[in-house]
Amino acid sequence: MDAPPAADGGEAGVRRTQKEATRRRVLEAARELFDTVGYQGATIREIARQAGVSVGSVFTTFASKGEILSQVMQERLAPLYAELDRVMPHLRGSTADRLRTMFGIHFAFETPRTRLFLTHIAAAYDWTLPPEAKPYGKTPRLQEIIRECLQKGVVEGDVDPVQDFQEIVDLLMAAYAWTYRLAITQNADAEAMTAVMDRQIGLIAEGFQPR
User: Fold this and answer.
1) Which of 3, 73, 194, 205 is such that its CA lies 20 to 30 A from the CA of 31?
2) Which CATH class is domain 70-208?
3) pLDDT for 143
């Protein structure tokens, strides 16, 4: 006959369940606040209030507000990267065309929550963020997907192999982030921003094509 589970094991399980429930409430509350009042406006106190937990509970679950934003965006972006992993190997056309498709998928995905993504971008310029935070630019999977696209272009002959891939990645990511200003200044939708990004990719591609 199996021995009954230890009492402290059961209590530990309850604590883990409670901590996970707190984590989910905090992330859901933070996602809504980041989307409505931005990173600066979404204080820990307000996140805790909206989540229905204490400020102390927030800090026992997350080290900082920057880490909360990182977790919010990591969970949000995971389905996007899964879709890109599925689609990118099957795309035809030039490297520039594949990059246009990739960023078009990004715009379509992000525009329903443009302000949330703008918060993600803005956090990249917050010098007070702790090292564990991962704002826009510190999300390695996006850079990896771009680099894989460029490497495929080398094989196919339309990307110069001597180019600095990281510089190209930086240019593309900077152009993508900067294009989102149009959502604020011109109320641009995904289609309009994709058209702008398409032209920018064309200009960048002129620099990485073989001479």
Assistant:
1) 194
2) mainly alpha
3) 93
